[in-house]
Amino acid sequence: MSLIPSVFGRRSSVLDPFSLDLWDPFRDSPVSSSNEASQLAATRIDWKETPEAHVFKADVPGLKKEEVKVEVEEGNVLQISGERTREKEEKNDKWHRVERSSGKFLRRFRLPENAKMDQIKASMENGVLTVTVPKEEVKKPEVKAIQISG
C-alpha cells in the first residue's frame, strides 16, 4: 500500500518519504482519528539554540495568550499546548468551505541538562509564541600546567 495519493484520489504505487498524506487506517471509520490526530501535530514549532538560550517559536495564528499554555514538567520537559475553538454555527449560515483547523494541540520537548528551568520566559506577538529557555554557562575546565622535573 502506498503513501501517495494519485491525481484521481487513489493511492499511487510509488512511496514518497516526503509526503504528509500518510495512510490512516481509520480514515473511513465512523470514529476517524485523522482530524484530531493531525491537530496534535499541526502546530509548527522551530527550536534553535543560541550561545545564551534555547528559543522555541510556535505559529499560533488567531489564538489569544489565554488560549495557549506553556508548562514545565519534571525531567526538563517543556510542554506547549492550546485549543482553537470552532466558530459557532448559526441555523441561517451556509458554509461553503471550512479549511481553518480547530481543536487541541500539544507539543513536548525534552530540554538539555543545562537549561535554567526557573528562568523560562514566554511572549506572544503577531500569532507567534516565543519561549526562551536560558542556558547555564558552561564553565571551561581550569587548566593547570604541571612542571616536569628531572
From TrEMBL:
Residues annotated as domain SHSP: 36-150
Record-linked Gene3D superfamilies: 2.60.40.790
Gene Ontology CC: cytoplasm
InterPro entries xref list: A-crystallin/Hsp20_dom, HSP20-like_chaperone, Small_HSP
Keyword tags: Cytoplasm, Stress response
Cellular location(s): Cytoplasm
Coarse class of the protein's main subcellular location: cytoplasm
Family classification: Belongs to the small heat shock protein (HSP20) family.
Name the UniProt record assigns to this protein: Class I heat shock protein
Lineage of source species: Eukaryota, Viridiplantae, Streptophyta, Embryophyta, Tracheophyta
